[in-house]
Design goal:
Blueprint (H helix, E strand, L loop, with lengths): L1 E7 L5 H15 L6 E7 L11 H9 L16 H4 L2 E4 L2 H11 L7 E3 L13 H4 L2 H21 L3 E4 L2 E4 H7 L1
Parallel strand pairs: 1-2, 1-3, 3-4
Antiparallel strand pairs: 5-6
Helix pairs in contact: 1-6
Amino acid sequence: MTRILFVCHGNICRSPMAEFVFREMAEKRGMGALFHAASAATSGEELGNPVHQGTREKLQAVGISCADKRAVRLRPDDYRAWDLLLGMDSYNLSNMRRIFGGDPERRMYRLLDYSAHPRDIADPWYTGDFDATYADVCEGCGALLEHLLRGGLLLCVEGNAYSLAAIASCT
C-alpha cells in the first residue's frame, strides 16, 4: 500500500481537500485499497479544528464528505511513516524540511510538481477562492495518480503485490 501524506500550513483548507479528492479519485478507479491518504499541518495553530467551512462546502458540492476530519500536526517520525509527503506550496516544503531535518530519501514534493505546470497552490484562507484551490488540487491529484500508475510502482495489498502499471491497463 502506498502511503501519501498531504501537508499545508493549518490542515484545514488545502491538505484535507487534497486528501479527500485523492481518495475519491482512487476509489472511482477501483483502486482505493492501494493507497492510504491523510493530511497534516506544519503549524499548531488549528490543531483539533474541523475543516474550514469553504473547503467543506466545496467538497460537499461535488459529493465528497470530510465530516470527521480534524487538524493534526506533522511530527518528525512522519517522515519514515509515509512514502510521499506532499506540500501545497514551497513554504510548506521549507517547514517540512525543518521538521524532518531534510529530505534524504527524496519523499517530499509539492503536489503540483506532478502536473504539467508545477507551481504552488494558493491558500484559500487568504485568497477566499476555494474554487481555484479545488481546481489546482484536482489537477495535482489527477497528475499524481497518473504518475503512480505510469511508474509501475509495486504495492502490497493484503499480502499480494500489484503493479500499478498492470492495473492501469485493466481499468
